[in-house]
Amino acid sequence: MKSLLMGLIVTCMTSPAFASEHLSGSPNFQHSIYGYLGLAVFCLAYTVVIFEEKLHLRKSKPVIMAAGIIWIFVAIAYATVGDTQTAHRAIQHNLQEYAELFLFLLAAMTYINAMSERNVFRALRYWLVSRGFSLKTIFWLTGVLSFLISPIADNLTTALLMGATVTAVAGNNKRFVVLACINVVVAANAGGAFSPFGDITTLMVWQKGKIQLGEFLVLFLPALVNWLIPAFMMSFFVSKEQPVASDEPSMMKFGAKRILALFLMTIATAVSFHNYLHLPPAVGMMLGLSYLGFFSYYIRHKEGVLNIADNPLDMTSHDKDTFDLFRTIRKTEWDTLLFFYGVILCVGGLGQFGYLSMLSHAMYQNLGATNANILVGIMSALIDNIPVMFAVLTMDPQMSHGQWLLVTLTAGVGGSLLSVGSAAGVALMGQAHGVYTFGRHLVWMPVIALGYVASIYVHLILNAELFH
Questions:
Q1: Cα three-residue angle 187-192-3, rounded to 5 degrees
Q2: Is 321 exposed, middle or buried (0-12, 13-18, 19+ CB in 10 A)?
Q3: Can you tell me the distance from the alpha carbon of 52 to that of 377, in angstroms, rounded to the nearest whole number?
C-alpha cells in the first residue's frame, strides 16, 4: 500500500499539469534525467525500508545510500548549467537541520537509557502489575499513562514501556494484548502531538519556530479526543477478569529519581535556550547532558567504582555493574538517528530538483490548506510522518497559525491509523510478535479514523480564531 501511494505521489509530481519552477530564475530539473533518477532511487530505498522486518535489513542503510546517490545527481545536474555553488550551499543547510535534530535526540535518548538502566521504567511496570487490577482497569491505566508520559519521554519509549506491561499481565489472552496494544499506540501518538518532546515531527515544527512551546497546549483537547473515542469503543470488548501478577519485585537503583529531575531540568534548559536566548534547543539539551555526565561521576563515587576509567573509548567496561555515561550513550538507537539523516538529505535533495514545490502546489493551492493538512495525516500512516513533515516544512506553504497546528496534529496522530504508520506501532508489533499484527490493527482502523476526524473538528472549532 505504501509503494502504491508513493507511486501515485510521484506520478502526480511528474505530471505536466503540476509542472512549475523550483525557484524563480532557477534551472528546471523536474523533468531531467537526474530528477527522474533521484525519484527512482528514493522510491526504491523506501520500498526496502517498508520490508525491513522481512529483509532483516536496518532501515538506515538504504536511505543513507539513497541520500548520497541523490545528492550526486543534484550536484551533476547543477554542474551541467555551470553552477557549482547551489548544491553545496543546499546540502550544508540540510546538514545543519540534521545536526540540530541529532544532538537534541542524542541527549534525550541518553537520558531515557539512563533512567532505564536505573530501573525507573521497570519499577513503574512492576507497580502496575502488582496492584491486582482487572484487565479493563489496566487497559485504561496503560492508555492514560501512555497519553501522559509520551509528551515527556516520546511516543516510542512510552509504547515500549506500556507494551511490556500489557504483555506481562495478559498471559494467554491474545484478544486483550491486541486491544491494549492498539490503545497504547493511539494514546502514545496522541499524547506526543501536543508536546515538542513527544514526537520527532513536533520537535521539528518547534525547532523551525512554526509553533512556540506554550502554543502546543491548544492541541491537548483535540489529541485527547483522538485517543478517548477509540479507547471508549474498544473498552466494551475488554473483559473484567483479574490476571495473576507474576513479576518479581523491582526497585529503582541509586540516583534514579535525581536523573529524572535532571532530565526535567535539561528540558527546561532547552526551552530557555530557544525562548529567551534565541539559540538552538539542541545546545541547551547538550548542556543538560553535561548535568548527567557530572552526576554519573557522583554515582560512580557512591558505588565505589571510581577506579574504573571514565573513558569513552573503553569498550571493556560493559561487564562492570555500575552506571557509565558513555556506555549509556552507546545504547542509543543509532539506526533511528542515521535513518533521520538519510530521510532529511533525501527529501532535501528532491527539493532541489523542484519536486517539493510541485507537491506543495498540488496540495496546498489545489486542495486548500485544510484538506492538504488532513491528507498529510493520512500520508503519515501510509509512508511515515517524519519524511512527510520534513517535506511540509521544506515546502513552507503560506498558511495561518491554526493550519500549522492542524498539520502538527494530523502528522502526529495520523500514524495511528495503521500499525506501520508510527514508530510506536512498529515497535509493539515486534514486542508482541505474532499477536499484535498489521491485520488485527486494521480491523479497528474505522474506530481510530473516527477519533482522527473528531480531533480535527475539535481543533477547527476550539481554535477557530487561529485560522485567520
A1: 85
A2: exposed
A3: 22
pLDDT tens per residue across span 281-316 = 889 989 999 999 999 989 888 876 655 555 555 555
What whole-number distance in Å separates Cα of residue 460 and Cα of residue 464?
5
Residue 173 CA to residue 246 CA, distance in Å, equals 15
Evaluate whether 376 touches 392 at the Cβ level (below 8 Å): yes
Instruction: Decide if 231 contacts 143 (C-beta within 8 A).
Output: yes
Question: CA 26 → CA 81, 86, 222, distances in Å?
Answer: 10, 10, 41
Give the span between the Cα atoms of 51 and 32, in whole angstroms: 29
Q: Which tens digit of pLDDT belongs to each residue from 254-284?
A: 898 999 899 889 888 987 887 788 888 889 9
For residues 185 and 416, is the Cβ–Cβ distance under 8 A?
A: yes
Cell numbers representing residue 339 in the block: 535513518
DSSP string across 351-412: HHHTHHHHHHIIIIITT-HHHHHHHHHHHHHHT-HHHHHHHHHHH-----HHHHHHHHHHHH
d(CA 108, CA 336): 13
Rounded distance, CA 53 to CA 434, Å?
13
Count CB neighbours of 210 within 10 A: 18
Tell me the three cell numbers of residue 366.
489545489
pLDDT in the model for residue 22: 44
Task: For CA atoms 237, 241, 245, 250, give the dihedral sign.
Answer: positive
Q: CA 262 → CA 75, 156, 214, 296, 323, distances in Å?
A: 44, 21, 21, 11, 15
pTM more than 0.85: no
Give CA separation, 63 vs 42, 50, 57, 69, in Å. Answer: 8, 11, 11, 10
CB 13 within 8 A of CB 5: no
Cell numbers found for residue 345:
538529505
- Per-residue pLDDT of 357-402, as tens digits, reads 777 777 887 888 899 899 988 888 876 677 778 778 877 888 888 8
Question: What are the φ and ψ backbone dihedral angles of 298, each rounded to 5 degrees?
Answer: -65, -40
DSSP per-residue string spanning 95-130? HHHHHHHHHHHHHHHHHHHHHHHTTHHHHHHHHHHH
Within a 10 A sphere around the Cβ of 303, how many other Cβ atoms?
A: 16
* Calpha distance 406→160 (Å, rounded): 27
